[in-house]
Specification:
Layout: E1 4-7, E2 10-13, E3 25-28, E4 31-34, E5 37-39, E6 44-47, E7 52-55, E8 64-66, E9 90-97, E10 104-114, E11 126-134, E12 137-144, E13 150-152, E14 161-163, E15 169-171, E16 177-180
Parallel strand pairs: 1-3, 2-4, 7-8, 13-14
Antiparallel strand pairs: 5-6, 6-7, 9-10, 10-11, 11-12, 12-13, 14-15, 15-16
Length: about 200
């Protein structure tokens, strides 16, 4: 027990017993741990046998599992943040390796971005954006606006659902088609409002 300070490479191996450090421990340089590693029971757990990491769990079922035991609807287990002021967003990127050059490239991403400058509560509106890659180019394919409108191929949807750049096809909050400019129909449909 007590404080431990170590300078230089440090290796702990489970061997025939477990290594326990009590008190404040400071390691300057590289720390190498062979075997499982547990931090505060299940705050952080490394499963060495399966190469998995668990946060909030000691039995991760995937490469990374984040668990939070809470009986609350819409609870979150993971926060992705951007500390730059001004409503700049944060997101998750999905990458894959290309065969010919062996490099990693983005396949898709999901981002949350501010619609305004977030200078006040009134200006704190955000959109959720989904991107996919087509022939090497990553671009936005769908957006959920701050008001809840969904745009497919439309970055500024004006109706509950819009399809195509320029809001060519629209479905309003009642489920009725509100606009269908340039769309040929092959059967009967009901349209409310004025065509765009």
């Amino acid at each position: 027990s007590g404080n431990i300070a170590q300078t230089g490479a440090t290796t702990f191996s489970t061997g025939t017993g477990a290594n326990t450090l009590n008190g404040a421990t400071s390691i300057t340089s590289t720390l190498s741990v062979t075997g499982n590693a547990t931090f505060d029971t299940d705050t952080l757990f490394v499963d060495a046998a399966n190469n998995r990491v668990g946060i909030g769990t000691t039995s991760p079922s995937n490469t990374l599992e984040v668990n939070k035991t809470i009986a609350t609807v819409s609870a979150t287990q993971l926060t992705v943040s951007n500390s730059t002021a001004g409503g700049y967003g944060a997101g998750i990127s999905f990458t894959g390796k290309q065969t010919d050059d062996g490099l990693m490239y983005e396949q898709a991403k999901i981002t949350a971005d501010g619609d305004a400058n977030w200078a006040s509560t009134a200006a704190r509106s955000s959109s959720l954006r989904l991107f996919t890659t087509n022939a090497g180019t990553l671009s936005e394919k769908m957006r959920i606006s701050a008001s809840g409108n969904v745009g497919i191929g439309d970055t500024s949807p004006v109706a509950m659902l819009t399809v195509g750049n320029g809001d060519l096809f629209q479905v309003n909050s009642s489920g009725a088609i509100a606009a269908s400019t340039g769309i040929a129909n092959s059967g009967a449909y009901v349209q409310s409002g004025t065509s765009a």
